[in-house]
Design brief:
This protein has about 200 residues and is mainly alpha-helical. The chain has 2 domains: about 1-65, 3-Layer(aba) Sandwich (Rossmann fold), CATH 3.40.50; about 70-195, N-(1-d-carboxylethyl)-l-norvaline Dehydrogenase, domain 2, CATH 1.10.1040.10. It has 9 helices and 3 strands. Helix 4 packs across helix 6, helix 4 (about 70-95) crosses helix 7 and helix 4 runs parallel beside helix 9. It is elongated. The model has no long low-confidence stretch (mean pLDDT about 95).
C-alpha cells in the first residue's frame, strides 16, 4: 500500500537512507524479456540513482511522483487490466451462446477497437481452456483488496472493481484450488452464471 511505503521511507530517512517504491507490470513475458514497466515513487534524485539497476530489469521506467505514487499507479493499472478481462469474459460467453465460431470470432475482434493485452494474451488461453497461471487468481484478489482499501482511504467509488472481486470469490467458492489458476479464470464465473463454456 502507498501508506506502507511512506512509513518505510520515514524509517529509512532516520538512518540516512532513501526509499523508492517500484512495482512492476508486464507479466511473465515482460519479466523474461527485461521489458517490464517499472512504476517508481520517491525523491527525484533517489529515482535517478536507481536507473542503472532498474534499466536492466525494465524497458519503460517512469517516475510517478513521491513515495507511494508507484504503488498507487500499480493498483490503478490492475483495475484497468481486470476490468478489460471482465469485458472480454462476458463477450466470449455471449459469442459462444449466440452460436458464433469462437476462433472466427477471436480473429475478427483481436485487432478491432477492443484490442488489448488481455485479449491478445489471455484470449487464446481461454479458448483452449488453459487456466495455467501467469498471474494467479490469489494475487489478483490481493490487488483488488488493496484497491478497495485505497478507494476507502480516498473516498473513491469503484463499483466495477467491487463486482469483479465478488466474481473471483464465486470462482474460488466453486473450486478452492482456483486461487492458484491464472487470473483469466474470472471467465469461469460468467460461464457458471450463463451455463456455457466459451471454448473453441
Amino acid at each position: 500500500m502507498p501508506e506502507t511505503g511512506k512509513r518505510m521511507a520515514e524509517l529509512l530517512a532516520e538512518k540516512g537512507a532513501d526509499f523508492v517504491d517500484a512495482p512492476v507490470t508486464g507479466g511473465v513475458a515482460g519479466a523474461e524479456a527485461g521489458s517490464m514497466s517499472i512504476l517508481v515513487g520517491g525523491d527525484a534524485e533517489a529515482f535517478e540513482r536507481t536507473l542503472p539497476v532498474s534499466s536492466i530489469l525494465g524497458g519503460d521506467i517512469t517516475h510517478m511522483g513521491p513515495v507511494g505514487a508507484g504503488h498507487t499507479t500499480k493498483i490503478a493499472n490492475q483495475l484497468i487490466g481486470v476490468a478489460t478481462l471482465a469485458g472480454l469474459s462476458e463477450a466470449f460467453v455471449l459469442a459462444k451462446k449466440s452460436g458464433l465460431d469462437m476462433q472466427t470470432f477471436y480473429a475478427a475482434v483481436k485487432n478491432g477497437a477492443g484490442r488489448s493485452w488481455a485479449l491478445e494474451t489471455l484470449g487464446p488461453k481461454i479458448l483452449k481452456g488453459d487456466f495455467s497461471p501467469g498471474f494467479m487468481v490469489k494475487h489478483m484478489q490481493k490487488d483488488l483488496r488493496l484497491a478497495g482499501q485505497l478507494a476507502d482511504d480516498t473516498g473513491t467509488s469503484i463499483p466495477t472493481t467491487s463486482l469483479i472481486a465478488q466474481l473471483y470469490h464465486a470462482v474460488q467458492a466453486e473450486s478452492p484450488e482456483a486461487i492458484n489458476q491464472g487470473h483469466q479464470a474470472l471467465i469461469q464465473a460468467i460461464e457458471k452464471l450463463s451455463n456455457a463454456e466459451a471454448r473453441s
